[in-house]
Amino acid sequence: MKYISNSINLICICLLLMTSCEQPKEGLLMPTVNTYEVLDTDTHETIIAKAAHVVPTENQYAAIQNEFIAFVHFGPNTFTRMEWGNGMEDPAIFDLQDLDTDQWCMAMKEAGMKMVILTAKHHDGFVLWQSRYTKHGIMSSPYKEGKGDILKELSASCQKYGLKLGIYLSPADLYQIEAPDGLYGNLSEYTPRVIPRPVADRPFANKSTFTFKVDDYNEYFLNQLFELLTEYGPIHEVWFDGAHPKQKGGQKYNYLAWKELISTLAPEAVVFGKQDVRWCGNESGRTRDTEWNIVPYATDPDQMNSFPDITAEDVGSEEKLYKAKYLHFQQAETNTSIREGWFYRDEDKQKVRTADDVFDIYERSVGGNSTFLLNIPPNRDGKFSAEDVGVLKEVGERIKTTYYENLFSGADGPKAVLDNDPESFKLLNKDDNAIEITTENPITINRFVIQEAIRTHGERVSQHRLEAWIHEEWQVLTEATNIGYKRILRFPEVTSNKFRFTVLASRFHPAISHIAAHYYKTRPPQLSITRDLTGMVTIQPEPDDFGWKPHGENSSANINSGIVIHYTTDGSDPTADSPVFNTPFFMESGQVKAVAKTREQTGEITDESIGILKSKWKVTAEGPKNAEHSGVNAIDADPNTYWLPDETGSSQFLEIDLGEEKGITAFTYTPPTGFSEGMIEEGILKISHDGKTWKTFESFKFGNLINDPTPRTHYFKVQMTTRFIRIESTKIAGTGKLAAIAEVDFLE
């Protein structure tokens, strides 16, 4: 659908209707289109009216309905253990002996995914299919003696397991940059070229041809696109990465030519990174609280050759729309990896996201008006690793048990929102802005799903509320902003037989197509007990320790809303009669025990010894000092920072002034997660009463730090009384050379 430019008369009619109490027929004032042009004469009210009539194309709507899809990064980097290759890798490095794409698809199907996108060519230029136009790829690798075709095998597995197929084709190409006869940036002339270029003994079954005025590299790229779009079955998404590890010769991409090829040869495909689908702005799985898919543009997206990344927190607010020249539907895709990195490296060092974390990202992304694209990198045996498969299976089970049953089935309420028909909808307005749903018997829920009829009416709701009828009155469960394709509301479980959804603000008459109630079985999480520099103790679900591109969310807390945490400070085990943790409390030192409870289960007790309060501590000396990782990082009550001495020194030590003399019974060492090569396996503790004269008090030793980099406590043979303490490292675990400390604590 092209954009529509309204006449002044139509706009006047629109404004007249908007100010009246009469509801326009079927909630439409003007045609719904994919892109609206904003005129200089348009008022703010007119601009918002246009935004309320911007809808997805049929391809976009089908794509957003996929909800949860897979990415597969596979190539030479899998074997070199690098995130980005240099383009000059010998294809023999891709030493694949076995491949099991059926196993990939089985795992993705169990997770509830509907499509997989393969990195057919990453930035290194190595291709995973039998291309006619290069030898830098699988045809020059040992796999099946150069006869293998990973995309072909994956395509067959997708058909077998009912998954859609997408392709990632990197515009950046380091091989074509670095090779002596490389085409990238070779300053070739733009001339008419016929696509595909014929190759002897490799005719195409598809006899379509195209003529474009392009240079050598764009011709190469178009030829490869033609292969991918015509020889591997229906392609439903083409993924263009915006990253460029290196450029040459001022190379430009002729996307408008690529677009014509894609729209002709893959009529069901959406294009990522261009007009159809946009990047969420990060690779961590972080989501915006408000994700509008009606996006402002300064030029017509239908004619744009290059699309910049949209990384701002505010993408489509009304203030943003007022400055636009075009209003365009461009849905967000939230992409991240199940492992620390896009490519597989190792089983023991490369952490894998927990099921809690993946499920939380699923609810935040799919339930936040975007698509969730999760990367699962195959290992060097051509399979998804067992740990990854286990997480996918668990996430799939949670999605199925939580969302496959609608607890409003058989309830009383508007049929249009309860009939599971995405084409039907309940139209609301300022006088009729609520939907009440009543069940025959009380139900217990903690998830609520709302969807707008975006295909026919676009995104309109900007603020909404959910309430439940409890103790003969309406009680607010939660509020949120926009809805769009889907909003998942999460809240502590509540039992009632009457619920009310209310639109508090909207851009025009909202069309609600679906409402559902669900229950997620909350699991008592493992708890974390921490204290800050001021002595305030916080108890919360244990944050995920996945260290790659952190999203800043406490996934366990997000999905387990409504848990009750009981705690004690006298050494006894907490029970249902123990104090409930609600807000941080002060504690100078001692022992805290805590346990999480749900309605049905009690979790494991977490026990934490709280050391001496650090507010008076000072680092008096360190050797040798490193300005970036100074000694204060070891006493700042933040395990994410760490002390690391300068590598030019020999003696590695840290001297601390406790502020006053203390009687100490133990020493706790927290190794850094950000520098795994610096874990102190053995060391010496020295004490001083004046900070000048030192005597050795005791040596310490910690084992198995490499496999278990968790805080360790060394208990003294006798109590130590001192004000000044010096920690000296004598042995680093493994092959490390530099000592490192995330946190040091002393117990009274």
Mind explaining what this structure looks like?
The protein has 748 residues and is α+β, with helices and mostly antiparallel strands. 18% of the residues lie in helices and 30% in strands. The protein contains 15 helices and 31 strands. Strands 8-7-4-3-2-13-12-9 form an eight-stranded parallel β-sheet. Strands 14-19-15-18-16-17 form a six-stranded antiparallel β-sheet. Strands 26, 27, 28, 29, 30 and 31 form a six-stranded antiparallel β-sheet that branches. A hairpin with an 8-residue loop joins strand 24 and strand 25. The N terminus is likely disordered.
Could you give a quick summary of the protein structure above?
With 748 residues, this protein is an alpha+beta fold. Helix content is 18%, strand content 30%.
Strand order of the largest sheet: 8-7-4-3-2-13-12-9
Q: Count of helices?
A: 15
Instruction: Give the integer mean of the pLDDT values.
Output: 94
Contiguous uncertain segments of 5+ residues: 1-21
Radius of gyration: 30 Å
The biggest sheet amounts to: 8 strands, parallel
Helical residues, percent: 10-25%
Shape: globular
Strand content: 25-35%
Question: What's the total number of strands?
Answer: 31
**Overall SS class:** alpha+beta
